Amino acid sequence: MRIVHVADSFPPDVGGIERQVEMLAGAQRADGHDVSVITAVNKPPNGDAGGLDVHRGLRVRWLTIAFPSLNARMVAQVLDREPVDVVHAHFTVASPIAVYVARAAHKRGIPVAVTVHSVWWKVAVAHRFVTWVFFGPAPLRPVYSGVSSMIAGHIKRTYPREKTVSVVPNLVDTDWWKPTEPPQHQTGVPEFRIVLVGRLKKRKQIDEFIEIMSRVKAKVAAGTPVSVSIVGAGPRRDELNKQIEELDLGDWITLLGHRTPEQIRDLLHEADLFIAPSRKEAFGIAALEARSAGVPVLGYRFTGLADFIRSGVEGLLVEDQDDMVDTLAKVLVDREGLDQLKTSTRSHSPSVTFADAMEATYAFYRRARQELGRG
């Protein structure tokens, strides 16, 4: 197939969506497909890795965001160079270049498959309004997918006429993360080792988790040995360090900064619990990596984690912040229960694998082509 991906954000920008689009394009290229990427990120093409065919927007990036039609010539060159089997548009809350390319493809009779990567429900009206203001009422009839069942539900509420919304999970090499040795049992008074991986940005709600740990510390016996390692870089590092100091959590929580995937894997293989603190987690790439590494995951029931975490089997899913506080406080005094949960997590294979995600993607493309009569 000839596949064209379009995403407003792409490497060298850092984030889950950027990483996913690059991985998917690379995997499809390895499968023998002709793959191109269109993005608003305007770093010169010589910065692209892996030999991907990447077409970047205007040098002044905000012009692409505000006036994506200024890239009409570049978009036409990509779409008209050779017949395109499918355009895969990756949507977040606002995705001007992705919407523009999807409409350009629609006008050419090219099947359009849209994957939504972000929590949409609370911004659905805003998304539709902004799309109408920027692009007018011109028709666009793609097929839709979400990265999780939760996001698929948001799409159905945003576009109630959509009878079918696929679930196309994010790509995680679950085999690469899995442990190769049996868990090591600590002697003496075991330290409870918690890991959190995420960019230090507001939407990751790490500040709320630090507040949760302050409440947990007040509930357990003084001197309870706890080590919380927060992996990730970002603009809120100084602010979070200050919060840790003010809440007297310096003996519990450490901001480790950036770590390589290999270093994160080693850290997870020694961990007791992984925390997914965001209440707006569309999928949970880091959580699936941790779960694949044999670490139980603690997160919220109403997020994308529910697609691959069974509460009591591979982790613990809670309803709200109060529930997370109570759950953590109980786990900290129940080492036997925690060990059983770790054993259960390691003994079950992840329900979402790399192969599953690739097959779901190709099935999604087949649906896009069938609905346009290209099946």
Describe this structure in words.
The structure is a single chain. The chain is of the alpha/beta class and 375 residues long. It has two domains: 189 residues, Rossmann fold; 174 residues, Rossmann fold, CATH 3.40.50.2000. 41% of the residues lie in helices and 17% in strands. Strands 3-2-1-4-5-6-7 form a seven-stranded parallel sheet, with helices on both faces. A six-stranded parallel sheet has the order 10-9-8-11-12-13, with helices on both faces. Strand 8, helix 8 and strand 9 form a beta-alpha-beta unit. It starts with a strand and ends with a helix.
Which helices and strands, and how do they pair?
Layout: E1 2-7, H1 16-30, E2 34-39, E3 53-56, H2 61-66, H3 72-81, E4 86-91, H4 96-107, E5 112-116, H5 124-135, E6 143-146, H6 149-158, E7 165-167, H7 174-177, E8 192-197, H8 206-219, E9 226-231, H9 237-246, E10 253-257, H10 261-269, E11 273-275, H11 285-292, E12 297-300, E13 315-318, H12 321-331, H13 335-347, H14 354-371
Parallel strand pairs: 1-2, 1-4, 2-3, 4-5, 5-6, 6-7, 8-9, 8-11, 9-10, 11-12, 12-13
Helix pairs in contact: 8-12
Domain Glycosyltransferase subfamily 4-like N-terminal: 14-175
Domain Glycosyl transferase family: 181-346
GO biological process, one term: carbohydrate derivative biosynthetic process
